[in-house]
Design brief:
This protein is mainly alpha-helical. It has 13 helices and four strands. It has helices at about 10-15, 55-65, 65-80, 85-100, 105-110, 130-140, 150-160, 185-200, 210-215, 225-235, 265, 270-280, 295-305, and strands spanning about 20-25, 30, 40-45, 45-50. It is elongated and about 85 Å long. The chain starts with 7 loop residues before the first helix and ends in an 8-residue tail after the last helix.
């Protein structure tokens, strides 16, 4: 930020102020052990004191307010907007942060209501972290845990994808972005998605019928066309017209003279026809409903298809 923010000596002294805590890995809670605490005087940024954790935090915010505000706001911008930071806008957010005495809600509110957040050019410009992908997936399918608690599934699943919770590679954390996707992690992501959908982790297979029922009118006569598109919009961040998938060949099945494809669908974007064809997999559109035989597996198959597309891993 134009000046030396801290030295190695400051890091050592701050570490001493933070001693005494440990993680109980049986339930992932933070515990305090006074015998592990270094109660000798410390020197932080040139000022000596008997700093404990809270005292050290208060002191840092007193002497490095601008640097802290900029650092945190840059992290927020990279997380929610784009990996290439806009320093001028980050500086504005930093001043807002300081003005609100480091209350983070006004900063988040300003960021998520800004033009940048809704900029179409920045939509889908991030790659989901393993934890982000899992949390997003569980939220999207209204996941119900039985055998495992949420944090256990997140811990086990993310570890296989290169992001072990509570175990970053260094103090800077994970590199993120492109580093999340490799020839190893991509198939591992697909496998994890299948396990979460099919109950391979919890022993409980999901039904997406309730989710589907919230997206469309279950009694809509054009449900077979509208639901596949609605599900894609539910799962995929980027506009559907730029999705990359192999377009199905051939026409819809069934008696298309008696039950023709609606004109709006025939004359609309290709995905309005392609996605229903993929979803129906040969079932005549006019015979399908949410009460059709095998609908639970059909919805899971389609969700898995969408989640294995590159676009699903963007946010």
């Amino acid at each position: 930020e134009g000046n030396e923010n801290y030295t190695q000596f400051d890091i050592v002294e701050l570490s001493r102020a933070l001693t005494g805590y440990y993680i109980d890995y049986s339930d992932f809670t933070t515990q305090w052990d006074p015998d592990r605490y270094d109660d000798a005087p410390k020197v932080l940024f040139g000022l000596e004191g008997s700093y404990n954790t809270q005292g050290a935090i208060d002191h840092i915010f007193d002497v490095r307010a601008e640097q802290i505000a900029t650092f945190i706001c840059r992290k927020l911008y990279i997380e929610f907007i784009h990996t290439t930071p806009d320093e001028a806008y980050i500086s504005e957010l930093g001043q807002l942060f300081i003005e609100h005495d480091f209350e983070i809600a006004p900063v988040i509110r300003a960021l998520l209501k800004s033009e940048r957040f809704f900029d179409g050019a920045l939509r889908g410009a991030q790659i989901k972290s393993p934890v982000g992908m899992m949390v997003n997936l569980l939220h999207q399918i209204n996941f119900s845990f039985t055998a495992l608690k949420p944090y256990e599934a997140l811990f086990l699943g993310s570890s296989d994808l290169g992001q072990q919770l509570l175990g970053p590679p260094n103090v800077a954390g994970w590199k993120g972005y492109h580093s999340w996707l490799t020839t190893t992690t991509i198939p591992s992501r697909w496998e994890l998605i299948e396990q979460l959908l099919r109950g391979g982790i919890t022993g409980y297979e999901n039904s997406l019928v309730p989710v589907a029922s919230t997206l469309v009118n279950a009694f809509d006569p054009l449900l077979a066309f509208k639901l596949p598109v609605a599900l894609a919009q539910h799962f995929i961040t980027v506009p559907l017209e730029i999705m990359g998938y192999e377009a199905p060949s051939g026409d819809f099945s069934g008696d298309l003279e008696t039950y023709p494809i609606p004109r709006d669908i025939m004359n609309g974007p290709a995905y309005l026809r392609d996605l229903p064809k993929i979803f129906l997999a040969g079932i005549p559109w006019y015979e399908w409903s949410l009460s059709s035989p095998g609908v639970v597996n059909q919805l899971l198959d389609y969700a898995q298809f969408l989640m294995e597309l590159p676009e699903y891993h963007l946010t």
